[in-house]
Amino acid sequence: MALKVIFRTILPSCFKANASASEPKKSQVSNSSQRISLSDLSNPGSPLSVNDLSNSVIGSNLHVFTLSELKVITQNFSSSNYLGEGGFGPVHKGFIDDTTRPGLEAQPVAVKLLDLDGSQGHKEWLTEVIFLGQLRHPHLVKLIGYCCEDEHRLLVYKYMARGSLENQLFRRYSNSLPWSTRVKIAVGAAKGLAFLHGEEKQVIYRDFKASNILLDSDYTAKLSDFGLAKDGPEGDKTHVTTRVMGTQGYAAPEYIMTGHLTAMSDVYSFGVVLLELLTGRRAMDKNRPSREQSLVEWARPLLKDPQKVDRLMDPRLEGQYSMKGAKKAAALAYQCLSHNLQSRPTMSNVVEILELLVDLTDIPVGPFVYIVPNGCEKGKRNKDKENEKESNKNENGKQCKENEAEKKEDGHRRRQKGLRHRYQLRSRAVYSDTALYRTLKNPSQGGINWKNY
Ligand SMILES: Nc1ncnc2c1ncn2[C@@H]1O[C@H](COP(=O)(O)OP(=O)(O)OP(=O)(O)O)[C@@H](O)[C@H]1O
Ligand SMILES: [Mg+2]
């Protein structure tokens, strides 16, 4: 009943926003059972148009921006503000304050622009607005607003200073993420998923992967990209049947084979990301020898045996991790990746287990560094200053070279990603992941003996 009242307040068309109409109003959502879902909006019996959300419960949490406002905010989507690009389209940094809209907190934002020639469209945009317009949690990225003008579709998010986990973990020229940061990220991302699964009206995220985990300045993990999210099964149903969509290397084998989606598919994908954090390897890496291209295939035998866990670990950690923690995390990943759904833990179990890792202190101390004491003679001080300048110059030069190299690598990856995306999206429906199919035919997974860890 409550839903119907809310539905009638939705206006029938997409419109050009004006400042007064776009003020977010106090949320009318009191509990998650009232959450509007995509199916509610596409229900032919509903008097709603999906196009205009501004006066709905969703609009009450979000600002509606005009395209020209977003052009100003991003300096006309200038290349200097470019942050990256995925299947939806390019993302640019911008800055909003109360000159943009009275009452708006001054802050940097990330503006995602739908690529009109791309394979995603209104549906993904709308799904994102519907979910993130209603769900709020410290481990979900905050959607600040959107723009829906003619055929243009944009999304405005809180800016995440450290970009995506994918960028942080796999970038060749930056410092490696320390163990404690990896654990923090794993816990945060797990909490985000646990929140979605624990909602009264369960949400299945369906696209859990390193590029969709964004990192705040203090490495707080936030899930982004709800374009593929789905409401979980209702009543006595055990699963939702859908077209198979997602990203190769992360999607659960049973979902790929049957199209049966459950929250346990997200748990599998979480296991893949946990493995990426442990190993520093990508879920799928065509540049590796064929036996090692699928991370799960390569790692599974090592995960199973606590004595082999050190062989898994990212060499960039240089041994500086808690061995106890690594073994527990490996065992947890093994469980998450089980072919038997019943053997996978729930996301709230995962959070409990990972939180135990935070306080483990059996981390070897780093290499000993001797710091030359400062001299006190004037001449030496001057010499030291000169040396310092020289070394700063070298350091800056090195940093510049590294930045240049990173930019080049990013450009290369972006081009590859563009291709990968087009491939992935064209073949999104029931793509075949032969490696996973093979292992599914041989489901030798059992429960895990935690005593060994
Ligand atoms: N809120 C944000 N703050 C900072 N950077 C962001 C934000 N949102 C996205 N980005 C940057 O933009 C890049 C592209 O993001 P996007 O989610 O569109 O694509 P993707 O996750 O890389 O690919 P996919 O389409 O498969 O999800 C991210 O890798 C990230 O670096
Ligand atoms: Mg993404």
UniProtKB/TrEMBL annotation:
CC per GO annotation: plasma membrane
Pfam families on file: PK_Tyr_Ser-Thr
Domain Protein kinase: 77-357
GO molecular function, a single term: ATP binding
Entry-linked PROSITE patterns: PROTEIN_KINASE_DOM (PS50011), PROTEIN_KINASE_ST (PS00108)
GO process terms (BP): defense response
Comp. bias intervals (Basic and acidic residues): 377-412
Keywords, comma-separated and alphabetical: ATP-binding, Cell membrane, Kinase, Membrane, Nucleotide-binding, Plant defense, Receptor, Serine/threonine-protein kinase, Transferase
Keyword Transport: no
Uppermost EC category: transferase
Keyword S-adenosyl-L-methionine: no
Localization annotation: Cell membrane
Classification via SUPFAM superfamilies: Protein kinase-like (PK-like)
Domain of life, source organism: Eukaryota
EC number: 2.7.11.1
Ranges where the record places region Disordered: 376-421
Record PANTHER family: OS01G0588500 PROTEIN-RELATED
Name under which the protein is recorded: non-specific serine/threonine protein kinase
Organism encoding this protein: Actinidia chinensis var. chinensis
